[in-house]
Amino acid sequence: MKIGDRIVYPMHGAGEITDIEENEVGGVKKSYYIFRLPVGDMKLMLPVDKVEEAGLRELIMPAQLEEVIEVLRAESEQLQGSWNKRFHTNLERLKTGNILDAAAVARNLTRQNNKKKVSSGEKRLLDLSRQILITELVYVCDKSPEEITDWIDELIGTSEEPDEK
To answer: Is 164 part of a structural domain of the chain?
Structure first.
């Protein structure tokens, strides 16, 4: 990996490697990739020697965009069990780093939140799944975060809401 590479960091989203710095933490000097996300001006530091463990992957190819669109438009999956069980199921999906899993979690939780507000834990997962999805699509589609957010909202829709206008 090198400066300028755009990659996906599971549980954070897509970003660009903007620098490689050397820092001392706990008396040990290490090299770190400086990774910036296109939303929220978030900066992450990833130890160079931990890249394999982090599960980084390349951005999806534009040809794979249709699969993401299909997932966002599909019917919601109704997870059974308590909010805690649903939370852990969704968290495990996000940990895979797979954009289709992030899209499904974002779709399901967005629609669920539109019907009846989700728990605070599920709200954090909703925000995280959307961040993961938006950051990658910003690069793949070459659009602004706002444009991608609007597009995702349009694709997910709220057709399952009973009081649709």
So the answer is: no
